[in-house]
Amino acid sequence: MYNVAVGIVITLLFVCLVVIFCAIIIKLYIIKIKEHNQKELNFQKELNTTIIETQEQVVNNISQDLHDDAGQQLTYINFQLENLKLDSPEWKEALEPVSQSVLALSNSIRSISHSLNNQLIVQNDIIKAITNEVERLQKNKKPKVIFNYIPSLNDQFETKEKIFVYRIFQEIINNCLKHANASIITIELKTNPYFQLTVSDNGKGFDFDSLDKKLTLGLQSMHTRAEIINYSVTIKSVINKGTSIKLSKK
């Protein structure tokens, strides 16, 4: 009897050791998988950051070319027109609409150049940059743009955060103007207790699953930029009722 009891105890101890050993192996395997997944996530995040930083450099170069090349050429054309009006007064009335068009185009290019240049975003306050863009949009009769901003004393942003937040805002507005066919766009901005930007429209809405892949690139870009700066993008859309996109700090 004694030998049987000892055998049972030894067997139980052995089984317990096997179970503990298996549990340790499984735990180590799970830790290894988590570490591998984290490395993959970190690599993907670094890759996305590099891609977006490269895109930013390209956008900056375009901005500089617009300012230095196209802007200067339009200024020179306008200068020639003014001289032509002085030399030939009889043409002044006919040339005036052309001068106004060239001036308007020059102002538009200057505005686009400024919005593309991230150095201007970095040097200035991001809230001011968004407000300036809203004011530019409000100069157009359609769509109507409503802006609600709750001021706060805690409007502090890192450099990368400024650039990415503004680029996401630009992408949201661009998609809204190009695809929504909305008559009203409502922009709500607050920074207390945390940053939250919501852009809503009364447009045609969309079904995300049925969108063309080309059209979703902008949405994917927003999510990618948001993840890099630890923000989140939430999209809600109803067919024929409109779309609401919220950018907020996690």
Query: What is the arithmetic mean of pLDDT?
Result: 75
Q: Numbering strands along the chain, what is their spatial order in the largest sheet? A: 1-2-3-5-4
Outline, from the CA principal axes?
elongated
**How many strands appear in the DSSP assignment?**
5
Biggest beta sheet summary: 5 strands, mixed
Show the helix and strand layout.
Layout: H1 2-87, H2 92-116, H3 118-123, H4 126-138, E1 144-150, H5 159-180, E2 184-190, E3 196-201, H6 213-228, E4 231-238, E5 242-249
Parallel strand pairs: 1-2
Antiparallel strand pairs: 2-3, 3-5, 4-5
Structure description:
The protein has helices spanning 2-87, 92-116, 118-123, 126-138, 159-180, 213-228, and strands at 144-150, 184-190, 196-201, 231-238, 242-249. With 250 residues, the protein is of the alpha+beta class. It has a five-stranded mixed beta sheet with strand order 1-2-3-5-4, with helices on one face. Strand 2 (184-190) and strand 3 (196-201) form a beta hairpin. Helix 1 packs across helix 6. The mean pLDDT is 75.
Provide keyphrases for this structure.
250 residues; 5 strands; single chain; five-stranded mixed sheet; alpha+beta; elongated
Short description:
The protein is α+β, with helices and mostly antiparallel strands and 250 residues long.
